[in-house]
Design goal:
D-Maltodextrin-Binding Protein, domain 2, alpha+beta, 20 helices, 2 domains, 8-stranded mixed β-sheet, about 450 residues, about 45% helix
Length: about 450
């Protein structure tokens, strides 16, 4: 697809970011070199990561391992604070950047593309080719092709995903068993039938049969993806006027109108999930593992999403959780080497930690050598189906149009599902499309 408009759009977004916050808003701690041997210039590699990522994945541990194996280089993991990207962009422009790498950017979403076209990050290809770290030579060839392509722009590779997520159907086996359903529904009709049965069974306990979540990509977006082999039109927006999109909105509204979901399809879904008041939810694949941790590995299963018909369409939306090399970074080779050391395919300890968080690994070898081969990881075999969903998925266009549609979708899906609403699915689709295209046109002007 044409990327003419996306580059202009994201450059404008970057300019807004650079001027919309003050440097004083940044709360990143900065540490100077320590412990260097006399007469030796220590290479200090500072990497910025959000607190949720450092809390979930042992980046500090792998930094210590890398430092011990590479005397003279010290990797420091620092937590991002408010306005961190503004400060990074300012330092890049001034030529005095003190950080070398950053994360987490979402490929197949808007953040990694924004980082790329704003000039905040640089391609990795030459540094991967020059790396002598074990795993570097196999990293790109071992990576699931769709994920590799989602981090590729203008023939260059820009972001290493340490995991990915897509949308899945996460369901309580005990609740489904109670109505005689031993498998996840595979079609909209099957989903509707089992939801009605669960509603009747769980009425006294006020159990909702199913739920969506507010995000476009995890709700109607997924219903459209799974119904079409190519979900985007020539304007690089979802095919809102297609019969498949109208049917998706109609199905969603029917679920809400029949009381099979919380109000609007998602109100209070997470609290209901943890309270045991939700029998199933279509959401990020990690939410199934959340449920297993809360209720037991035998009571929650993660399955592919039900589809409109017999075919899987374009799978589901997905995104890789990526790290990137900052533009004009000090020590880019050492930074890339640390990334490979930490999250390359050879680091099975890291891959196992990722899998246990409920996020899905990005390398084919992780499925072969860990999920399929290690009995301790049998409970994660559902990730194979998620890999297959992503393998056939269609990457979002390289722009922020999907996030624009998400904004307008969140408005109109509430209007469509308000009690007593007279809005039709066709009118809802037309309103989302009209407002989205109007906003996109303003960006292109």
């Amino acid at each position: 697809m044409s990327q003419k408009h996306s580059r202009r759009t994201f450059l404008k977004m970057a300019a807004v970011t650079a001027t919309g916050a003050t440097l004083a808003a940044c709360t990143i701690p900065v540490a100077g070199p320590q412990g260097a041997a006399p007469g030796v210039q220590e290479k200090v590699v500072r990497i910025l990561l959000p607190s949720w990522a450092t809390g979930e994945i042992p980046f500090d541990t792998t930094a210590r391992e890398f430092n011990e194996a590479n005397p003279g280089t010290r990797v420091e993991i620092q937590t991002t604070g408010e306005g961190w990207d503004t400060k990074v962009m300012a330092q890049i422009q001034e030529g005095n950047l003190e950080w070398s790498g950053a994360g987490i950017a979402s490929s197949a979403s808007s953040s990694l593309p924004r980082w790329i076209v704003s000039g905040m990050v640089q391609p990795m290809d030459d540094f991967i080719a020059s790396s002598s770290v074990e795993g570097a030579a196999a990293m790109l060839s071992d990576m699931i092709p769709t994920l590799r392509n989602a981090s590729t722009y203008e023939g260059k590779f820009w972001g290493i995903p340490y995991s990915f997520e897509n949308i899945s159907f996460n369901w309580r086996t005990d609740y489904f068993d109670a109505v005689g359903a031993s498998e996840a529904p595979t079609t909209f009709d099957e989903w509707l039938d089992v939801a009605r049965a669960i509603k009747e069974w769980g009425a006294d306990q006020q159990i909702f049969a199913t739920s969506f979540i507010p995000d476009l990509d995890a709700s109607v977006g997924t219903l459209i993806y799974s119904s079409l082999e190519e979900p985007f039109d020539e304007q690089m927006v979802l095919k809102w006027e297609s019969q498949e999109a109208i049917d998706a909105l109609a199905f969603y509204k029917q679920m809400v109108d029949e009381g099979l979901t919380p109000p609007h399809g998602f109100d209070g879904w997470l609290d209901a999930y943890y309270a045991g008041k939700l029998a199933s939810v279509m959401a990020q694949s990690s939410r199934g593992v959340w449920g297993q941790l809360a209720f037991g590995t035998d009571r929650v299963i993660t399955s592919p999403v039900p589809t409109r018909g017999a075919g899987p369409g374009a799978g589901t939306p997905f995104w890789g959780n990526c790290v990137a090399l900052l533009n004009k970074a000090p020590y880019p080779q050492e930074t890339l080497d640390y990334f490979v050391h930490t999250m390359g395919p050879q680091n099975q300890t890291f891959q196992r930690n990722v899998i246990k968080t409920g996020k899905t690994p990005v390398y084919e070898s992780a499925y072969r050598d860990i999920i399929s081969a290690d009995p301790q990881f049998r409970t994660y075999e559902w990730m194979i189906a998620m890999r297959d969903q992503v393998d056939r998925s269609v990457t979002r266009p390289f722009n922020n149009y999907f996030s624009i549609q998400d904004t307008h979708y969140r408005n109109y899906i509430v209007q469509l599902t308000e009690p007593g609403s007279t809005m039709t699915p066709e009118e809802c689709a037309q309103a989302i499309l009209k407002d989205s295209l109007a906003e996109i046109a303003k960006q292109q002007a």
